[in-house]
Design brief:
about 230 residues, 8 helices, about 20% strand, four-stranded antiparallel sheet, single chain, alpha/beta
């Protein structure tokens, strides 16, 4: 059983899909607007999202990118778009899978099972804790402590910190972080990385001029260093 957020503004499709999902043992949370979906993703942490692209308030692809900025919840996009370029754009924006309309209840249930299975496997493969000096990161619980004190990190700050901590001593480029953490590769947006690194440094009690954990390699990227 999973808590599934169904983002669809067509009442007939919502009713039919909700019935199929409920009959399969899932709990369904239907909404018709992207803004409501974003709030639920943040507050209620569903296990999976089915996202229609033709929403009345925000374009579905933009809604997907906004969702990805606050959560790593698995997302299946339901779309009438069938071109290869459209599908590539959706996957690049952060979709885990997609179904093209019209689709059967059995089809979407099979996709849901596959995506949830992959998500569970990935969670199980994560290390229970990563220790770098007096910094301890728990990827499974999504918690981080410095000197025994919890760090208040946003989702994206945690993702960046964990990615770097898993690669201590390696120089990681901004492009790699954009690709692997943001799941995006759009040129011109790498400055977003600099902003998040700056916020992380502040919370880690360091500065670019006096780094402790996060060392900038000019013209290349950033490297996590064990200060011990």
């Amino acid at each position: 059983m999973a808590l599934i957020l169904l983002v669809e503004d067509d009442r007939i499709i919502t009713a039919a899909l909700s019935r199929a999902l409920t009959d399969a043992g899932h709990v369904v949370r239907p909404v018709g607007r992207a803004t409501d979906a974003l709030k639920i993703v943040t507050d209620e942490r569903p296990d999976l999202v089915i996202l229609d692209l033709g929403l009345p308030d925000i374009d579905g692809t933009d809604a997907l990118r906004m969702m990805r900025s606050v959560s790593d919840v698995p997302v299946i996009v339901a779309t009438a778009r069938r071109s290869e370029a459209d599908i590539i754009q959706l996957l690049s924006a952060g979709a885990d899978d997609y179904v093209t309309k019209p689709f059967s209840g059995g089809h979407i249930l099979a996709r849901i099972a596959a995506v949830l299975r992959r998500a569970r496997t990935q969670a199980e493969e994560q290390p229970s804790a990563i220790t770098v000096g007096d910094l301890v990161i728990n990827p499974r619980q999504r918690r981080a402590e410095l000197g025994g004190q919890p760090l208040q990190l946003t989702r994206r700050e945690f993702d960046v910190l964990a990615y770097l901590a898993e690669r201590v001593g390696q120089v990681i480029s901004r492009r790699e972080l954009m690709n692997e953490v943001w799941n995006q590769a759009r040129i011109g947006e790498e400055q977003t990385i600099d902003v998040h690194i700056s916020w992380l440094r502040r919370k880690l009690g360091e500065t670019a001029a006096k780094p402790r954990f996060l060392h900038t390699v000019r013209g290349v990227g950033v490297m996590m260093v064990d200060p011990r």
